[in-house]
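ingest -> fold -> write
write: protein_1
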Amino acid sequence: MEVKTPNPGPSPCEGKGIEVKVVIPSHKRWDRVLTTMAVDNAILCVAESQRELYAKCNKGVEIVTHPDSVVGLARKRDWIVQHFKNVMMLDDDIDHLKRIYTGKGEPMIVEPDEAYEIIQLTANAAKAAGAYVFGFSSSPAPISFDSFNPIKLSGYVTGCAHGVLEGSKLWYNPDIICNEDYWISLLNAHHHRLIWKDTRYYWSQKDTFVNRGGLAEFRNLDAEEKDFHLLRRVFGDVVELRKSKQNAKHPFQKTLKLPF
């Protein structure tokens, strides 16, 4: 008896589906971009004055520039969202997309072409659900994965890997220096009450809290403290300091206690 493989149907980018651009915001790290090897079709977004250096060190990668007047990651992200409309933003220091679940015979590391397709599928699922922000797991530990609830509809997204879809009420506050992921997660909770997180996957990132270029140029304890107080003024006591100091990288590391 002949067994026929079912037709998988159209790509999420065909028909009524949306195509999400995969964009890597980067700053003064032209010779250390890793993420273009973790996912196909990624676009580097850099300041106009840094274009030549990035082009020299990242052959064959599409580069989109913003004006040099766009300073700081929050402003850069806001420019990216306005420019690309439907976008997945990935930090420039990501090694690979990792499977949190342990499917039989499936490799833990996702290949770049499949990583791109997973982004497209996740974005289209988010849109179908009515969500404007989508993301993936914030923990690489398999023990944190709930196989009975792989899709989370509340919570927050990490700054290193999250997507925003057009039509929302979302924007990035230029006064936020280090914590634009907390800002967008809280603003999304306030306006839309819905997020789409596929916790089956985790974007594996190198530790860049102190690193030349990127956000490290602006990040320090004073900036973290200012961000904390700004978030508290705008969103209230749902923004808390992390009670456990054992694994905190600095005294102003935060946690969110969303009421839904």
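write: protein_2
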Amino acid sequence: MRTVKQVSSLTGVSVRTLQFYDEIGLFKPTEVTDAGYRLYDDASLEILQQILFFKELDFTLKEIKEIMDNSKFDKSEAFKKQRVFIEMKRDRLNGLLILLEKLEKGEHVMSFEKFDMDDYFKALDEFKKAYINEIVNKYGCTETFDEMVNELKSNESQLSQLAIKQYGSLEKFTEVSKKNLEKFLQINAEAVDVEESIKKTDYLTRKLTEDLSKDVYSEEIQNKVGELIDWCDESNNGLNLGENYWPLMVDNYLTNPIFINVNDKKYGEGASVFIGKVVKAYFS
């Protein structure tokens, strides 16, 4: 058993903060002695570690308490999701450090560096050669496929940045893209009603945002967002969108001005941030 001072020394969390966590019911001591001293065992320290991970991801103390008090809270699954979010945060910071290093040297960096997309476009070319008949059957000619590739090349810088954020690396993005293209060719176009899919996505989003004052952790809201996420996954017809797709979407809902503007206009002021918080809570 450790005293509050020993826990503070071990974790770097101040004694006053540990006392405050106890007062609000977030992190209770294992036991309190007759003299009023708080004592903590190893199991309680694991709880504190979990709390600190959530804090690193900018969750409020109220949000952390609600998550960890939830009977469905899965510590192992939480660690997996936290790792994804923290890796994204690390990658953004690493990018900033590289930029700062160049600026310190006096370099004039007016835009983001392009990443090498040669392997990806080579894979597209190989795919075209291997599936020429399927592409013609799907599009009617190869020119449509070529136009798509040329459009991607014209936005190479933005594509590479998005690919790394969403898939973790350009290598993984290239590998997954090959499989996605093969699956896409197998999808029966007549069986996919795009207009109906958009309508259902809109309907489920309106259900989710009909009352923006609702608690994002409530069972009602979490059931609604679960229905929306399941539908989005289903409507993608098994295509792999990358392990960071939903964390990236959360980031867009919360911070991307374009996302915020579009969603707030469509679903009400504050809807984008509300959706972001709800999805973030769902994957926590």
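write: annotation protein_2
The chain has three domains: 2-69, 118-186, 194-282.
The first helix runs from residue 4 to 11.
pipeline exit 0
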